[in-house]
Amino acid sequence: MVRIILVITKHFNERVIAPSLLAADFSKIGDEVARAVRAGADWMHLDVMDGHFVDNISFGPAIVHAVDAANDVFLDVHLMISRPDHYLQRFIEAGSDLISVHIEAEHDVAETLRRIRAAGRQAGLALNPATPLSAVQPYFDQIDLLLCMTVVPGFGGQSFMPEVLEKIAAAAALRSQGNHSFHIEVDGGIDASNAGSCYHAGANVMVAGSSTFRAPDMAAAIHSIRNA
Ligand code: DX5
Ligand code: ZN
Asked: What percent of the chain has pLDDT over 70?
């Protein structure tokens, strides 16, 4: 029993760096993913936007499938779409390893999370900076990852919102009180100047777009986020 608890604790203390493809050069996506993996990326974060849930359109299942076919890297797919339930099967078939859906989207959240796990994939639940933690708490037993947005979703390159740190700390406290086991991921404006605070608040998965893909030395950027 003690050993299992130690293993779980260690798991969520381990930092995972997930560069966001949104900041890559879209004219050579395969090369960009390979560059991120060579630079030390643990996961690739793929931001799917439908122009409705957020005010931007990025890419869909075809790109997820292309990245999956070209690489063995773990695919962390973030669905910023209004009807994740409607498109879910396509993202499962495209090769997503983890799929995060938003609590603010229009769907039966418990049922969508159940379907993700039933397909043998990991289930993530995302919440916007303005959404209280109480909205996601009922699903803590059904998730492998809680995605705390640290910007208002829609665009890369925005500034980190430090007020979200409190919510991350509260999520980590509720996780240990309830013996739940899920990663806490931060997404938006993450770089070496704030990754340390996020980690100390309880987040272990760091999504970073601009600060990795647009850095002069991507390996050094990933290293500094990991050690911040
Ligand atoms: C925001 C996206 C983020 C974003 C991260 O809507 O969910 O994943 O691309 O990019 P940076 O690190 O540039 O804020
Ligand atoms: Zn994202």
From this structure: 96
